[in-house]
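Is this the right way to post structure tokens for a design question? Let me know if I should format differently. Anyway, here goes:
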């Protein structure tokens, strides 16, 4: 698998035509696993099992370390240093492939933050430099950190719009690695964030900041979590997802998360690239419409499945709107599986290559970090290993999604209605699995 060190801002992980796993066998196995899982939980998982008291307690020294102020301070300082370093390269560095900013934005911030959140939890809330800047400005002005001009009532909708916009920037926008473009992107994001925080207070970061919401939702899959009494525990990804309750804007946010990654894999297909080049429509327009189509497809299919489910469960149609919000968290494991499948190689290789660029942020030939001679290690992106990681992550993500949907369904519906009502959801899960594997192996 050839991966070039040039900037490739998250357009999949390269060609997968040489993957050694047979596609037909994988599809059969994936569908079988999902169907067997559905039958098993329908007969054996008869009542809600996930509780906020579950989990294996971490040793007290480790829990104390995670809660320690100095650990969080160190993390914030390192994030601040990286931010200043990146801003120096953004405004003073060369507008060329030697500039590290595209790698920091499209690889470390987008993909690296996702992987770190799935491993450690919502880390961006701790190290978010814009949140820290806002808090610092309030302290300098001697103003209460809870200051807000208006109450926040928009739910996750601004985050969904922000994530959708960034996905478009990453996958569609032309010249998205040029410094003028990135300066406008970073400057605009900083201005909107500070304005939102000035009007709505810290609630803006909790609900509207796209990267905090991105990190928080994917962080639900982390094995690290807090029990109902606040103590640190090791838990299953299902416990984190089950703890998320429906809220405004959750469905479009999850649709953007899942649809954006699916489009990224789809856009790497050679046939699609040929079609775009031969189309009478401008490529940016065609790509934008297709990306929006992927967002819409996810939102519509999960809503239709929910609507049919509530009718099969003999519930009023009006309840489908609340039910789809209840079921939406079950798409988060699927989105996480897609992320791992599509971005593993990009993260492993380009994530290392970023260090080679960061050592010379101003393009003067300096070697400030001693990494100028770094050669990325490709041991973790060998074809067989990558193929296995991709296939397993998609299947496991979908199985977790089935379990999460079942737990939520039997929580809000009676058992018989929940089992019958899950049939449309099961069909959607199978559709997503087949679609994900097809995209993966046709790219």
């Amino acid at each position: 698998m050839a991966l070039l060190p040039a900037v490739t801002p998250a357009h999949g992980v390269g060609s997968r035509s040489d993957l050694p796993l047979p596609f037909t066998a994988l599809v059969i196995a994936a569908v079988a696993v999902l169907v067997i899982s559905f039958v098993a939980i329908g007969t054996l998982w008869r009542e809600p099992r996930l509780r906020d008291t579950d989990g294996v307690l971490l040793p007290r020294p480790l829990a104390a370390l995670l809660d320690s102020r100095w650990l969080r301070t160190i993390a914030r300082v390192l994030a601040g240093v990286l931010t200043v370093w990146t801003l120096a390269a953004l405004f003073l560095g060369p507008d060329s492939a030697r500039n590290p900013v595209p790698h920091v934005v499209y690889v470390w911030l987008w993909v690296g933050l996702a992987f770190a959140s799935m491993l450690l939890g919502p880390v961006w809330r701790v190290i978010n430099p814009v949140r820290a800047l806002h808090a610092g400005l309030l302290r300098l002005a001697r103003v209460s950190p809870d200051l807000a001009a208006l109450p926040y009532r928009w739910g996750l909708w601004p985050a969904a719009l922000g994530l959708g916009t960034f996905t478009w920037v990453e996958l569609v926008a032309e010249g998205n690695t040029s410094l003028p473009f990135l300066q406008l992107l970073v400057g605009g994001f900083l201005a909107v964030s500070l304005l939102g925080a000035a009007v709505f207070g810290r609630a803006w970061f909790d609900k509207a900041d796209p990267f905090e919401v991105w990190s928080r939702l994917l962080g639900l899959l982390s094995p690290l979590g807090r029990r109902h009494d606040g103590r640190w525990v090791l838990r299953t990804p299902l416990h984190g997802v089950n703890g998320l309750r429906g809220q405004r804007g959750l469905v479009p946010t999850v649709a953007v998360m899942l649809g954006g990654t699916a489009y990224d894999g789809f856009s790497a297909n050679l046939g699609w690239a040929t079609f775009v080049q031969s189309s009478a429509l401008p490529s940016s327009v065609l790509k934008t419409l297709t990306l929006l189509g992927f967002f819409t497809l996810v939102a519509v299919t999960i809503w239709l499945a929910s609507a049919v489910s509530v009718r099969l469960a003999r519930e009023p149609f009006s309840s489908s709107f609340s039910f789809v919000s209840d079921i939406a968290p079950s798409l988060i494991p699927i989105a996480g599986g897609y992320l791992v499948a599509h971005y593993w190689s990009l993260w492993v290789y380009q994530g290392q290559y970023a260090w080679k660029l960061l050592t010379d942020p101003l393009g003067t030939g300096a070697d400030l970090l001693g990494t100028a001679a770094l050669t990325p290690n490709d041991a973790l992106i060998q074809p067989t290993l990558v193929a296995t990681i991709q296939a397993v992550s998609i299947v496991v993500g979908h199985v977790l999604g089935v379990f999460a949907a079942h737990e939520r369904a039997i929580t809000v519906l009676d058992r018989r209605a929940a089992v019958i009502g899950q049939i449309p959801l099961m069909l959607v899960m199978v559709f997503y699995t087949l679609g994900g594997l097809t995209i993966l192996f046709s790219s």
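Format looks fine. Someone answered above. Worth noting: The radius of gyration is 22 Å. The CA atoms of residues 311 and 317 lie 6 Å apart.
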